[in-house]
Amino acid sequence: MANKDQQFVTSAVKAVDFPKSNLPRIAFFGRSNVGKSSLINTLMNRKNLARTSSTPGKTQTVNFYLATDNSYQLVDYPGYGYAKLGKKKRAEINQMIRTTVSEIDNLRGIVQLVDGRIPTQPVDLEFEKFLNQVGVPQMIAVTKTDKVKKSEIGKLENRIEKDFGENVEMVEYLLTSTVSKRGITDLKTWISELTNF
Ligand code: GDP
After folding, report:
1. Which of 20, 28, 37, 195 shows the smallest number of beta carbons within 10 Å?
2. Which secondary structure element, helix H or strand E, spans residue 44, and what is its range?
3. Does 60 contact ligand 1 (Cβ within 6 A)?
4. CA nearest 132: which of 106, 162, 158, 171?
5. Where's the EngB-type G domain (predicted)?
């Protein structure tokens, strides 16, 4: 695959093809369209990161990127729960995620993105539970919070705490936005605490 992205390391569909790494890694998960590419671009201070296409029929790869300061690698998983992909393809992606996450060499943390504009989706809770069992620190990044009215932010926080604290001990969460840049510094700090040692 042609790729001019200097920070692009590799892409793989099978764990056996995941590159080994001396660098710590942080993996990113979320439903398609949750804002994962935008968030990864923001974390990498980039406008256009080569992105996995969510187009039905295209190979859904796990992409490895080197962070701007070369201190860690970002592992970008294909979006789950994309309706247009159809049931079979969706199931394949879910299965791929489930069988490969524990195979990521040097994984230090997991960021799970959930869309702050819509109610909690069952598939997000399923993945929260699964990702929690991987055994590395987990952060819920609530996305697109610039679209949430100030007066609704408290309600959003309560809902996230209630829904995501129901099945597993409450994992950490951050309200984020790539538009207003809310939460970005905090997320960077969380990542650097997990990767700088
Ligand atoms: P992905 O499919 O998870 O990689 O999602 P993208 O990053 O491609 O974003 C999906 C859509 O949500 C695009 O139209 C983005 O412009 C939009 N989006 C992403 N992040 C934000 C955000 O923080 N605020 C707002 N308002 N829109 C966002």
Report:
1. 20
2. none
3. no
4. 171
5. 22-197
